Amino acid sequence: MSPDQVETDGRGSRREWADAATDYVLERGLIGLTLRPLAAALGTSDRMLIYRFGSKDSLVAEVLRTSNARATEYLSHLPPSEGPKAAVRDLWAAVSHPAVDGCHRLYVEAAALRLFGQEPYASIVRETNNEWRSTVVDHLTRSGLDAPAARRISTLIDAAFVGLRLDLPLGDSNGTHDVDTAVADLATAVSLLAESPVGRQAAQPPGPASCWP
């Protein structure tokens, strides 16, 4: 992709820039992100990035949308699981897959920045979280749960996965075993909840995950 191609390619060029910027941010994270090194890595200028996206905040929001779209696209193609317990295990395996792992890390990083009310994270995290949870609900319903139970349980799964991601160690085999045990415990809890009257009762319309008030 060259700047000249992007300059003349209209709407498609914005998607290409967003994809390239997303690849860059997935490798380096959001904290400390500045336009000049990003532009240099993409073979363009910070002025051109502002021209294309309007502002750094708009570019960051587009990166988070692109990353989230990649993750939800992967999850949407998962085959149905054999019940709620298997669904939790399958969803965690998907989140841990190389195609999604970096996207989920970026999602959690943005969520942490949102806790301080910092934009664009305060707005974009809510948007992407709703899309993410909708995809989780879809997988749960395809795996045999009714819609109210799936919406209720998606909140628990989402919050637990974020917490596990924050605790997931790098290169610590004992810590990884602890996370695997926690996922198994979560799967058991979700299975019991799905079978209980509370789990089957009508749920309220979905809101933001509990870890992001």
TrEMBL record:
It comes from the Bacteria. GO terms for molecular function: DNA binding. Residues 34-53 bind DNA. The keyword DNA-binding applies. Residues 11-71 form the HTH tetR-type domain. SUPFAM superfamilies: Homeodomain-like. The keyword DNA-binding applies. Keywords: DNA-binding. This is TetR/AcrR family transcriptional regulator.
